[in-house]
Amino acid sequence: MRTKEEIRNYVWEALRPFALPPFPIKGRIPNFKGAKEAAQRLFKEPEWEKALVVKSNPDSPQRWVRLGALEQGKLLLMATPRLREGFLLLDPKKIPESKYREASTIKGAFKYGKKLRTIKELETIGKVDFVVEGSVAIDTEGRRIGKGAGYGDLEFGILTELGLMEVNVPIATTVHDVQVLEPPLPQDPWDVPLSMAFTPTKSFRFKPLSRPKGILWDLLDPKKLGEIPLLRELRSRLSH
What we know:
Layout: H1 4-14, H2 35-42, H3 46-50, E1 53-56, H4 63-71, E2 75-79, E3 87-90, H5 100-103, H6 106-112, E4 114-116, H7 119-122, E5 130-133, E6 137-139, E7 144-145, H8 151-161, E8 171-174, E9 180-181, E10 196-198, E11 203-205, H9 222-227, H10 229-239
Parallel strand pairs: 1-2, 1-5, 5-8, 6-9, 8-10
Antiparallel strand pairs: 2-3, 3-4, 6-7, 10-11
Helix pairs in contact: 2-4
């Protein structure tokens, strides 16, 4: 079986004819032609339509999803880069409609969003009922490979550990067709599989695969614990 890094390199190369800025795409969740069309497929799903609180990654290809969430009146939760400042909450009722496009970018999210740095602040959002992830590669059974930093899986662990999200929450991604590979992709114990995926031309729904319950503390990189205040606060709460 190919390693995750071999698969990432294969996809970044295969995606080059279809890539959009920011460049280079290597090392990123890659932006692609048709990202808007993939997002529009997602918007037709009943789980999305009834969702009130959506958590999304901050990467470029999912900007259309974040914009759609705001335009459709959903609360939007985004992690700050590397989770160092916790999360950002964007409430479309508190943002002028003319600024939704700007607010859907990472820079705009810092401008119009409210920082949630502590558990107490995070607990004010209610339950997250839909999740959007960025992906470098997925397979046709719902396994996902990100860019390798592991923050999306960590966000899932934090929110499920706190009871702010169910382990079986719907999780979707938008990708280009060349990012969809044959199964199985290699997976680690902390990897969180998808419920559904959307390309510019196709919609996928997956049978549930096993997901980790909360944070796998024994496997957590100590460096991340040192860098993320929210993680240290959670660890402290659980140890008392």
